[in-house]
Design brief:
Layout lengths: L1 H12 L6 E2 L8 H10 L4 H7 L3 H12 L4 H7 L1 E8 L5 E8 L1 H8 L14 E4 L10 H8 L4 E4 L12 E2 L5 H22 L4 E6 L1 H12 L4 E7 L8 H14 L3 H14 L5 E2 L2 E2 L5 H11 L4 H8 L1 H14 L6 H16 L7 H5 E2 L3 E2 L14 E6 L7 H9 L6 E6 L6 H4 L1 H12 L4
Parallel strand pairs: 4-5, 4-7, 7-8, 8-13, 13-14
Antiparallel strand pairs: 1-6, 2-3, 3-5, 9-10, 11-12
Helix pairs in contact: 1-13, 4-15, 5-7, 7-19, 8-9, 13-14, 14-15
Length: about 425
């Protein structure tokens, strides 16, 4: 407990008061803004402690895209990596892959729909703490048939990392946090010059993709949510419903039923990434407290310094076992560590939009019923994300042609890494016939 308390105190001390984007400084000069986002506070002492820099992150991303045999495939395609300037002076790290004919047509000044692939591009959003390099097993095969973009979300990866300000959990805070991600994607779309596209998001990226579909449905030809976080209602919703019932019907019978329900819920164990979590445990109470103080996993890694680097590498080796040989693991480990140890920014959105253990404060199951875009859910057969909420959404939908739910065999939550061939086949099937 003493060690836990020390880690909590110092982690909070190193955590910015976050996590809602402060958009009032959007008029700052572009170059100064990018310098402020990515390099502010960088000192030789911090570098010695973390062994992390923008240059090292860029080199780590280079190494990921240099992994064979994927690098050979990229050489055969149109393959481009660049920073795209968006509103506010921010930059979005972008990877673009397309069939070989696109490069020739682009050089000849021909239009996108003449590139030899389909005219509706695919845009891919990574999950929490990830980056464009996570799609290395997918971009080559998908890019042989379609025009594909993968981007680092604002505040993640090599994209600009704005300073964030924590203001609590009001509706205004939630609206501002959601808008900062959704509008940055829309600004990127305009900068790249895409009209309509298919949007694919994994985990937290799936949550952001769903928000984009709700706000800008006319820009999407299809929405693909790969094991999205935030679908079901969490335990806090049951507590709110019970309180509302007690307030509306304060009869003796209601009070007795509420008391019995409260006794039953003492035994309730919400499901999380590690299975059933005992809500009464000291560890869980500590995690919940840290979560509400705005402490992120990445801030703990930064505090631990060299030990944080070792823990990150051990986590990657265990979590991404199917990634390949030991050399590939070392490349991915360095990439994930460089992302995690960089200045904190977008990572704090999870403390604002989600309750502890990633239960959404605004569950997608209550919101996606309004979306008018064809939507596909795909989960791993061994996924810790339960597809039940998506299946219920399908059953309740008045237009079942708009929603589809699939389960990918031989995969868990990181389904695009654990079974890339199966995942790619599903995505190609979803793209077929999109107009």
């Amino acid at each position: 407990r003493i060690v836990s308390i020390i880690i909590v105190v110092i982690a909070i001390a190193t955590t910015p008061l976050s996590p809602v984007l402060n958009s009032s400084s959007a008029t700052t000069d572009n170059n100064n803004k990018h310098q402020q986002c990515n390099n502010a506070g960088m000192s030789w002492l911090r570098w010695l402690w973390l062994n992390q820099s923008d240059e090292q992150l860029a080199a780590a991303e280079d190494a990921v895209f240099g992994i064979e045999p994927f690098a050979q495939v990229f050489h055969q395609l149109y393959f481009d990596r660049r920073m795209v300037e968006i509103d506010g002076g921010y930059r979005i790290n972008t990877v673009e892959v397309a069939p070989p004919a696109y490069k020739q047509n682009k050089n000849n000044g021909r239009k996108q729909e003449e590139d030899g692939g389909d005219d509706v591009p695919l845009v891919m959003l990574h999950g929490f703490g990830g980056g464009v390099g996570f799609w290395v097993k997918n971009l080559g095969e998908l890019g042989q048939r379609h025009h594909v973009y993968a981007i680092d979300l604002l505040g993640f990866g090599r994209s600009s990392r704005p300073k964030w300000r924590f203001k609590g959990t009001t509706d205004a805070d939630l609206n501002e946090c959601e808008a900062s991600f959704v509008d940055s994607i829309e600004s990127w779309r305009k900068a790249v010059g895409i009209d309509r596209f298919v949007l694919l998001g994994h985990s937290m990226g799936g949550y952001v993709a769903a928000l984009y579909g709700l706000k800008y449905p006319g820009r999407l030809a299809k929405l693909i949510l790969a094991s999205p976080v935030g679908m079901p209602r969490g335990p806090h919703f049951h507590e709110l419903e019970r309180e509302a019932q007690q307030a509306a019907h304060p009869t003796p019978q209601d009070k007795q039923e509420a008391a019995e329900q409260e006794e039953d819920e003492k035994e309730y164990k919400p499901r999380g990434p590690r299975g059933l979590i005992n809500k009464q445990s000291y560890t869980v109470r500590t995690i919940e407290w840290m979560w509400r103080q705005g402490v992120s996993a990445q801030s703990v890694i930064r505090f631990l310094g060299p030990l944080g680097a070792r823990l990150t590498r051990a986590f990657v080796h265990r979590r991404f076992e199917p990634f390949g040989n030991d050399q590939n693991h070392e490349v991915l480990q360095e990439y994930v560590y460089q992302i995690s140890a960089a200045h904190g920014s977008g990572e704090y959105m999870i403390n604002t939009l989600f309750e502890p253990f990633a239960w959404a404060k605004r569950p997608l199951c209550d919101r996606l019923g309004r979306v008018q875009v064809p939507t596909v859910f795909i989960y791993g057969a061994h996924d810790w994300m339960n597809p039940r909420a998506a299946q219920d959404l399908l059953l309740q939908s008045t237009n079942k042609n708009l929603i589809r739910v699939d389960v990918l065999r031989g995969a868990g939550h990181q389904l695009f890494i654990e079974n890339p061939q199966g995942f790619n086949r599903h995505i190609l099937a979803y793209m077929r016939g999109v107009q």
